[in-house]
């Protein structure tokens, strides 16, 4: 269920000085002094973020700003927290990546999307992995069955080939076919 994705084992959890609370079946946020930060008016929500917090009231997900105003409309089947200015969102069948203006950075069509850093987006489609930049240009083709992210590089492998992608220079430094 959608609710179980962001709900912790209990109705209250703490993260960075804020606590998620549940009152009369609705979810809100309080600070460490017990002051309301976001009223308990939502069906569910992600982790509190002072810029944009994922929320749902209607069954669809959107984002509220710190003033508890709807900043991004309820339009997604699920919405994850923003990371480095980008957030993964879901529709019925796949995931996409949006920016804080709700513009699609990576279009729907991927089963996994992860922002690794300010230059690289790891994607998975149909069980194979690859790497995109923020212009949605492939840095490593989406055709490898496994990957390992290291500090300086990322290794992509499939049964018959391997690619070593150097993160600093944004280039493939080794390719075995």
What is shown here, in short?
By secondary structure, this protein is mainly β. The protein has one helix at 2-6, and strands spanning 13-15, 18-23, 26-31, 36-42, 44-45, 53-56, 61-64, 70-76, 78-79, 86-90, 95-99, 104-110, 112-115, 121-125, 128-132, 138-144, 146-149, 153-157, 162-166, 171-176.
Highlighted features:
single chain, 177 residues, mainly beta, four-stranded antiparallel beta sheet, 20 strands, disordered N terminus
Tell me what the structure shows:
By secondary structure, the chain is an all-beta fold. It has one helix and 20 strands. The protein has one helix spanning 2-6, and strands spanning 13-15, 18-23, 26-31, 36-42, 44-45, 53-56, 61-64, 70-76, 78-79, 86-90, 95-99, 104-110, 112-115, 121-125, 128-132, 138-144, 146-149, 153-157, 162-166, 171-176. A four-stranded antiparallel sheet has the order 1-2-3-4, with no helix packed on it. The longest helix is centred in the N-terminal third of the chain and has 5 residues, at 2-6. It is elongated, with a radius of gyration of 19 Å. The termini are far apart.
What is the 3D form? elongated
The amount of helix comes to: under 10%
Mean pLDDT over the residues: 90
- How many beta-strand segments? 20
Estimated structural class: mainly beta
Radius of gyration: 19 Å
Query: Can you tell me the residue ranges where pLDDT is under 50 for at least 5 consecutive residues?
Result: 1-13
Largest sheet geometry: 4 strands, antiparallel
Number of helices: 1
Distance between the termini: 42 Å
Order of helices and strands: HEEEEEEEEEEEEEEEEEEEE
């Amino acid at each position: 269920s959608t609710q179980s994705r962001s709900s912790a084992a209990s109705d209250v959890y703490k993260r960075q000085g804020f606590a998620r609370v549940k009152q009369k079946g609705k979810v809100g946020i309080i600070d460490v002094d017990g002051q309301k930060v976001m009223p308990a008016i939502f069906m569910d929500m992600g982790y509190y973020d002072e810029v944009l917090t994922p929320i749902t009231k209607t069954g669809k997900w959107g984002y509220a700003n710190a003033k508890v105003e709807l900043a991004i409309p309820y339009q997604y089947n699920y919405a994850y927290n923003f990371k480095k200015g980008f957030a993964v969102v879901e529709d019925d069948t796949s995931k996409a990546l949006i920016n804080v203006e709700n513009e699609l950075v990576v279009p729907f069509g991927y089963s996994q999307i992860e922002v690794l850093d300010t230059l690289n987006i790891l994607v998975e489609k149909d069980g194979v992995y690859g790497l995109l930049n923020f212009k949605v240009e492939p840095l490593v083709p989406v055709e490898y069955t496994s990957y390992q992210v290291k500090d300086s590089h990322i290794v992509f492998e499939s049964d018959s080939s391997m690619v070593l992608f150097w993160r600093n220079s944004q280039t493939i430094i080794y390719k075995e076919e």
